């Protein structure tokens, strides 16, 4: 089954304790992206990647890091989480084809609470 | 820069009634437009997308949306609501962004509209 998986689905942590949220897709997609969803703000892009070893900042990158060492994986790293990073996080992936944007496929989400 | 405005953060309808969720966009170029649905505790799922072919786009679960350039709108409709349609709906506009010698579609999302369906 074609899918995007994220782990963990729920996470409670404390300020300053480094954490990683994993994202993996089995569709051989070049493009992957991380979003955060906050009430009344919709989804905002954190980072994206066009392919292995190619990453760039989205609209709200402060406090986050990413890496893309393999095509299927795109982990999101919070080196020193703060309470304002409490949010619902989504990973998404899509093909990169000429002629127009392809549909992005979303993971189930990771709900993070930073105390 | 692209932007999307969804009018109404909450919409409530009776089962069997018309569903109308409003979306207006701003774009300096012909846009690609999407509607996504998010069921409780799930990720986003594509309902439909407009890519400059037919202005009336049909999606899954009986939903459709009409692109109106003169009104910069892409409203989502369904003739008869079902209880299973209760969810949050997001309108998004995509802009082709050039980076590293290639391009990708950067999605900008609206704020979301929560649809409640009453028996």
How does this model look, in words?
- The complex is a heterodimer of chains A (115) and B (119).
- With 115 residues, chain A is mainly β.
- Chain A is 0% helix and 50% strand.
- Chain A has no helices and 11 strands.
- In chain A, the strands form 2 sheets. In chain A, strands 2, 4, 5, 6, 9, 10 and 11 form a 7-stranded mixed sheet that branches. In chain A, strands 1-3-8-7 form a 4-stranded antiparallel sheet, with no helix packed on it.
- The mean pLDDT of chain A is 93.
- Chain B is an all-beta fold.
- Helix content of chain B is 0%, strand content 61%.
- Chain B contains no helices and 11 strands.
- The mean pLDDT of chain B is 89.
- The interface between A and B is medium-sized, with 28 and 28 residues.
Rg calc of chain B: 14 Å
Radius of gyration of chain A: 14 Å
What is the averaged pLDDT score of chain A? 93
**Secondary-structure class of chain A:** mainly beta
Any idea what the shape of chain B is?
Answer: globular
- Give the oligomeric state of the chains in this entry, treating copies of one chain as homo and distinct chains as hetero: heterodimer
- The portion of residues assigned to helices of chain A is under 10%
Please specify the SSE layout and strand pairing.
The complex is a heterodimer of chains A (115) and B (119).
Chain A: E1 4-7, E2 10-13, E3 19-25, E4 31-38, E5 42-51, E6 54-57, E7 65-66, E8 76-78, E9 87-94, E10 105-106, E11 110-114
Parallel strand pairs in A: 2-11
Antiparallel strand pairs in A: 1-3, 3-8, 4-5, 4-9, 5-6, 7-8, 9-10, 9-11
Chain B: E1 3-7, E2 10-14, E3 19-26, E4 32-38, E5 44-50, E6 56-58, E7 64-68, E8 73-78, E9 87-99, E10 102-109, E11 113-118
Parallel strand pairs in B: 2-11
Antiparallel strand pairs in B: 1-3, 3-8, 4-5, 4-9, 6-7, 7-8, 9-10, 9-11
Structure summary:
Chain A has no helices and eleven strands.
């Amino acid at each position: 089954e074609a899918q995007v998986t994220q782990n963990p689905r729920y996470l409670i942590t404390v300020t300053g304790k480094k954490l990683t949220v994993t994202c993996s897709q089995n569709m051989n997609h070049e493009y992957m992206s991380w979003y955060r969803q906050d009430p009344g703000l919709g989804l905002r892009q954190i980072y994206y990647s066009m392919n292995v070893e190619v990453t760039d900042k989205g609209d709200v990158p402060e406090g986050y890091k990413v890496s893309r060492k393999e095509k299927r994986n795109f982990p999101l790293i919070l080196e020193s989480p703060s309470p304002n990073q409490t949010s619902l996080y989504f990973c998404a992936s899509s093909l990169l084809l000429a002629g127009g944007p392809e549909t992005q496929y979303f993971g189930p989400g990771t709900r993070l609470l930073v105390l | 820069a692209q932007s999307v405005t969804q009018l109404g953060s909450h919409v409530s309808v009776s089962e069997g009634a018309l569903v109308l969720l409003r979306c207006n966009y701003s774009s300096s170029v012909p846009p690609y437009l999407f509607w996504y649905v998010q069921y409780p505790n799930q990720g986003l799922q594509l309902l439909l997308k407009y890519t400059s072919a037919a202005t009336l786009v049909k999606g899954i679960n009986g939903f459709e949306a009409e692109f109106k350039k003169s009104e910069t709108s892409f409203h989502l409709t369904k003739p008869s609501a079902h209880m299973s349609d209760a969810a949050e709906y997001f309108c998004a506009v995509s802009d082709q962004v050039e980076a590293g010698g290639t391009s990708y579609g950067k999605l900008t999302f609206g704020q979301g509209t929560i649809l409640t369906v009453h028996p």
